[in-house]
Structure to design on (242 residues):
C-alpha cells in the first residue's frame, strides 16, 4: 500500500486538475468558497494554505490581494500551482504540511487545510500536532479552516464504489475498504492509449477522523468552532482563535 504522498505523486497528481473539472472550474469554485468563508484577506494579509494542491484556494486568495504561502507534499502539484499562479503573490513550498511553522516569518491571519487533506495525516497524533501548531501560529482572531469527509459511518456494499469523472479518453472510479481507524481508498484509472485502454490501480490510507473529535480538539486548544456544509459533500469547520 502506498502512503498518501506516494499515491498522489505517482497516481493522482498528473490528472488532478482534470479530476477537479479543469483549472478554470476549480478556481471559480475555490474562489466562491473563499468568498463564503469571509476570511480576513485585506490586501497584504498573510495566509497559509496547507495541502494546497494546484491552488484552487491559494490562487483566488492571491488574486484578492493576500500574500499566500501554499504548501503541498506533491512536487507535481507544486509545479502546477507555480505555473497557474505565475505573477501572483504565492510562495509555493514542496514540503510536509506539518512543517508549516518553518515557512512563516509572521503570524498568519488564516490557515487553510481544505479538501480532505487532514485525513491524509498518518495518525491521530499527527492531527493533534497540526491543531496545536495552528493554535500557536495564529494570533487571537485568526482563523483555521478545515474541510474533510466524514468516514465515521462506513459505506457498505455497492455504496463503496464511487464514480469520480470520465470523458472519451479517461475514466476514474474508486472504492473504499473500512478498518477500525482507517479507510483504504482504491483509485482505479482507465485511460485510452494508441494501443487501446490501459488500467492503473493504486490505494492509500485515510484517517477515519470523526468531525466531532476534531471539533473537541480544536476547542481544547482555544478555538471557537463553527461546523457547516462544505463543498462536494464535505464537512467544513471554521475555527477562530480566541
Amino acid at each position: 500500500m502506498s502512503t498518501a504522498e506516494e499515491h498522489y505523486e505517482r497516481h493522482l497528481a498528473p490528472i488532478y486538475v482534470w479530476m477537479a473539472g479543469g483549472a478554470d472550474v476549480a478556481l471559480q469554485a475555490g474562489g466562491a468558497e473563499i468568498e463564503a468563508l469571509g476570511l480576513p484577506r485585506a490586501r497584504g494579509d498573510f495566509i497559509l494554505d496547507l495541502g494546497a494542491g494546484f491552488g484552487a484556494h491559494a490562487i483566488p486568495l492571491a488574486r484578492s490581494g493576500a500574500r499566500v504561502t501554499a504548501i503541498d507534499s506533491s512536487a507535481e502539484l507544486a509545479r502546477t500551482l507555480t505555473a497557474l499562479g505565475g505573477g501572483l503573490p504565492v510562495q509555493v513550498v514542496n514540503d510536509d504540511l506539518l512543517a508549516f511553522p518553518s515557512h512563516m516569518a509572521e503570524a498568519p491571519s488564516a490557515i487553510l487545510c481544505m479538501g480532505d487533506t487532514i485525513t491524509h495525516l498518518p495518525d491521530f497524533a499527527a492531527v493533534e500536532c497540526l491543531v496545536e501548531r495552528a493554535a500557536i501560529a495564529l494570533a487571537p482572531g485568526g482563523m483555521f479552516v478545515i474541510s474533510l469527509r466524514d468516514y465515521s459511518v462506513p459505506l457498505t456494499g455497492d455504496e463503496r464504489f464511487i464514480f469520480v469523472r470520465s470523458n472519451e479518453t479517461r475514466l476514474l472510479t474508486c472504492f473504499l475498504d473500512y478498518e477500525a481507524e482507517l479507510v483504504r481508498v482504491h483509485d482505479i484509472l482507465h485511460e485510452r492509449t494508441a494501443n487501446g485502454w490501459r488500467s492503473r490501480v493504486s490505494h492509500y490510507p485515510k484517517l477515519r477522523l470523526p468531525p466531532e473529535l476534531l471539533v473537541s480538539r480544536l476547542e481544547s486548544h482555544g478555538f471557537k468552532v463553527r461546523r457547516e456544509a462544505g463543498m462536494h459533500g464535505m464537512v467544513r469547520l471554521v475555527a477562530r482563535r480566541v
In short: The CA atoms of residues 183 and 203 lie 10 Å apart. The mean pLDDT is 95.
